[in-house]
Amino acid sequence: MISVGAKWPNPTMAIVGPQASGKSHLGTIWADRVDADILALSALAKDHLKDGLAKPLWLDHDGAPFDETALFHALNMATEEQSSILLTTRHALAKWEVALPDLSSRLKAIPQVQIMTPDDALLEAVLIKRFGDLGITADPAVIAYVLARLERSYGAIDAAIRAFDQRTLAAHRRATVPLAAEVLDELLGEDSSIPESAAPDDMD
């Protein structure tokens, strides 16, 4: 769990992870706990800082261009005013391409929490949770079938879950292995059909 900014060793902290890895979920928890303002980094401007940092600030970087001077001032204010900034990003701060040398140095000094590439056990847990969040019933055979065919990434899981949600809602079908084959065939653009020998007896 992310603690409040006052307990951080640095006024700013970053969460780094791939798409759909849970960065926004963690950012939301933190923002709720400390009553932080939430802003896309690309939307940050000097006008936001004219009265200082009135509250902690969560800045999400989606890769879009941003005002480097505004970010540099915000980082300075967080230190001067004993406030806190949370950055969420897909790429390590040291890899950000910035023109301001002082900002580059500041970014490299910020502590980072890295969300690592998931292993099979974690992907299975994420898939089960996402199905449950959407109220989709998926038995172990469906989970195993999907995991055997998906890229090992949070983004692939997210895309598959969205496709399942659309299919089950539109057709009023529960998640089955045949439905998984249909969804993955469309999603991956390849034949995801089930070998006859692998088909369970209770398929729809």
* CATH classification class of the largest domain: Alpha Beta
Which stretches of 5+ consecutive residues score pLDDT under 50? 1-6, 191-204
- Summing up helix and strand content along with how strands pair, one would put the structural category as alpha/beta
> Strand-residue fraction?
5-15%
Helix content: 40-55%
Instruction: Enter the CATH topology name of the largest domain.
Output: Rossmann fold
Main β-sheet, spatial strand arrangement: 2-3-4-1-5
Question: What do you see in this structure?
Answer:
The chain is an alpha/beta fold and 204 residues long. The protein folds into two domains: 5-114, Rossmann fold (3-Layer(aba) Sandwich); 120-198. It contains seven helices and five strands. The protein has helices at residues 23-34, 68-80, 101-108, 120-133, 140-149, 154-171, 177-188; strands at 12-16, 37-40, 57-61, 85-89, 112-114. Helix 4 (120-133) runs parallel beside helix 6 and helix 5 (140-149) packs parallel to helix 7 (177-188). The protein is elongated, with a radius of gyration of 21 Å. The protein starts with 11 loop residues before the first strand and ends in a 16-residue tail after the last helix. Mean pLDDT is 81; it is low at 1-6 and 191-204.
